[in-house]
């Protein structure tokens, strides 16, 4: 049994604001340790439940946050930037399931540090359905026939997961007060919860179906300002919807839509004055 784990940072226990997740800020090094410990709880539970192989993808920012020297010795780790499939790099049909750890709510929604890839995105849509990082990643997993078995993060990430994926297991390690304040479990208590929920998710894996993506999906990204939309629309095949900051791209499949999203948001970040 082979398990895939994608680990983001904003949904990790006790992390409340940008000082915890920005590598230039004072709380970041503490946060890396908590993030690594959190991943280890899920990895250990997976091995205890009979997984023969666990692949962990560092999925936050430059994707070099996990302290590999402190990670479970039997885990395999994907680390660094640039990855063609970012938060779900190397996820394929060989995995029995995927677990998302440290995840957060999508842009424009309530939730600790809620966003979708970059803070310049207001909304993302696949065929006019609003979706965030979690949904796009789950669609890529579904393309390969892999179900998302568990999502760990704040209460709003859990709600988003439950609305998106029937029978998914959720592990709520903190509750949202505002976008930059939370009521959190301690790392020790969160560890107990994560081990318990990972075991539950693996035992109930047959109840969760892969999130099947639509054929020929239309990707639409709404940016915060027109300059970001102009940069994103430099990618061939895109166009700005008139009188909006929405850039659209007609993809042949969800894999192409995912890569298009990555290119569009990277271009949008070049906007220097907002």
UniProtKB/TrEMBL annotation:
GO MF annotation: an example: metal ion binding
Residues at which Zn(2+) 2 binds: 8, 60, 104, 133
Top-level taxonomic group: Bacteria
InterPro entries per UniProt: DppA_N, Peptidase_M55, Peptidase_M55_sf
Binding site for Zn(2+) 1: 8, 10
Protein keywords: Aminopeptidase, Hydrolase, Metal-binding, Protease, Zinc
Catalytic machinery residues: 115
Pfam families per UniProt: Peptidase_M55
Name of this protein: Aminopeptidase
Source organism of the structure: Cytobacillus depressus
Lineage: Bacteria, Bacillati, Bacillota, Bacilli, Bacillales
